[in-house]
Amino acid sequence: MTTLHDYIGDNEKKLEEERRREEELHAEILQQIKREKRQDVNFTGFDGKLSELISGIRTIPNYNNLKGYIREKILPKNPDINYKKLSVLAGVHQGVALVIMYDLYNDKLEAELSDLQDPALDYHYQD
């Protein structure tokens, strides 16, 4: 007979396994970035915990304003800028610049995908 304690223990094991898989995925992504040498992600204060860096920086109170400023004022004049130069121009930490570039890139991809989506192709399945 399964007890509440067994059920809670199973859920904790599942959560721990998901957390471990997520950490492995982030580590794999980080290694891929380093291999491809697109961005050198070794800077003061960064110890390889990509998810913590991203979630922490997104909680900065003026993050969205800063992201908008970079999108509107800096990137149009410097489209091929790297995060190190961006951090100097924007006056922010390199980690903040890296996360903003990451988010702006994802925002651009999402906008392009939504422009390509044809409403006539949206199918809704009903059970």
List keywords for this structure.
127 residues; mainly alpha; 2 domains; 5 helices; 67% helix; elongated
Describe the overall structure:
The protein has 127 residues and is mainly α. It folds into 2 domains: 1-38; 42-117, no CATH class. Helix content is 67%, strand content 0%. The protein contains 5 helices and no strands. The chain has helices spanning 4-36, 50-58, 63-74, 83-90, 94-116. The radius of gyration is 20 Å and the shape is elongated. The protein starts with a helix and ends in an 11-residue tail after the last helix.
Bin the strand percentage.
under 5%
The count of β-strands is 0
Helicity, as a percent range: 55-70%
The biggest sheet amounts to: none
Question: Helix tally?
Answer: 5
Radius of gyration: 20 Å
Query: Helices and strands: which structural class?
Result: mainly alpha
Unreliable segments (pLDDT under 50, ≥5 consecutive)?
none
Say what oligomer this is: single chain
> What is the number of domains?
2
Question: Helix-strand pattern, N to C?
Answer: HHHHH
Task: Give the terminus-to-terminus CA distance.
Answer: 34 Å
Shape, principal axes of CA atoms: elongated
Mean pLDDT reading: 77
